[in-house]
Amino acid sequence: MFDFDRVIERRGTHSAKWDMIAKLSGIEAPDALPMWVADMDFAAPPGVTEALMEEVKRATHGYYADTGSWASALVEWMQRRHRLTLDPGWVSQTPGIVSGLGLILQAITEPGDEVVVFPPAYHAFRKIILANDRRILDARLIETDGRYRMDLAALEARLSPRSKVVFYCNPHNPGGTVWTGDETRALAAFCASHDLILVSDEIHCDLLLGGAVHTPALAAAPDFADRIITCLAATKTFNLAGAHVGACVTPNAQLKDRLDRRIAAGGLSSYNSFGMIATEAAWRTGEAWLDALLVYLTGSRDLLEARLRQSIPGARPMPLDSTYLAWVDFSGTGLAPEDVAERVSRRARIFASPGDQFGPGGAGWLRLNFAMPRPLLEEALGRLGNAFSDVHNRTRIESPPTRARV
Ligand SMILES: Cc1ncc(COP(=O)(O)O)c(C=O)c1O
What we know:
- By secondary structure, this protein is α/β, with parallel strands linked by helices.
- It has 14 helices and 14 strands.
- The protein has 2 domains: 16-44 and 288-387, Aspartate Aminotransferase, domain 1, CATH 3.90.1150.10; 48-285, Aspartate Aminotransferase, domain 2 (3-Layer(aba) Sandwich).
- The strands form 3 sheets. A 7-stranded mixed beta sheet has the order 2-10-9-8-7-3-4, sandwiched between helices.
- Helix 4 (69-82) packs parallel to helix 11 (273-285) and helix 12 packs parallel to helix 14.
- Bound molecules: pyridoxal-5'-phosphate (PLP).
């Protein structure tokens, strides 16, 4: 019903993923493949295209009237998909999640305050914290049994009176960790006992592989809801990142008011109509498309994990329960990180995200976006295998760790 195998030519279409390869990676080869930024090479759900076409055909593109239908569509989606009850009155729109994170920092912290992140973690967390003259407090994740875990005791020892906010990536990028309700609840309780605001970025919450189940922070810790801000969007789920619209959701009216003042101060209370139309249509019409996508992505994940293990001795993909971003440890290959980078970028002509971009714990890893039609994925996996075909390492990992289910 949905043709995820169809290869769509995206070069020369203002696609950051494809048209920025040479500039950002230095790979000039015309057949270079992008496996970096979190953007899929699939057509959006048909209902999105239809809604946008209607708008385009009408050809009047004036200011967008927010009638509340967008927030209702989000609330209904979260109820249907995640059994989470939200109130539309808790929703503040922002021009994307990262800008929402910046606005939250401006609303509730001062320059010099500390923001906790759990690295290796989404690199834009670091950037937006520093761009707002706040400081990063790294609470490095620990890897056990092929899965990340938080070490709250170690974090506790490092908190200071300037520690104000936690940026929690739920599910986690990179690594695809689907945090359990207990883990999220423990973090929320920790935040309550140390007077921290918990910002739960749940942009990947719909991208669940192989039947994994997401627990929203508000569902895991309803009694701490007053100190939770949840960031939600349709853009990652439905491949609409260029729409640049997201939501910050909090039942705490005081927090919401402070955030809304920052939104107003930035002149951001009026929304891009194309982004609003596309994302509302996605929530309202995209469910069957998403179900099919998740089956496809789960198959691609299994293919990638098996092929990398088989063709690159020592390469160790972290078992992925969420996202389409494989997180692969190359340290077992016995090759220097520069050698690995050279093989991937020059020999395989693949632009991957370097692990050190994600902060402490990322060195020696690469993040590989596999949300592409299978023919392209096959091509990429073949090239990667060839680029490492001369490597014969003792640390070959024969059997994968069992997929963590806790
Ligand atoms: C955890 C996380 N948050 C936010 C974003 C980006 O959100 P936006 O484009 O709405 O700023 C990404 C994109 O990859 C992400 O992985």
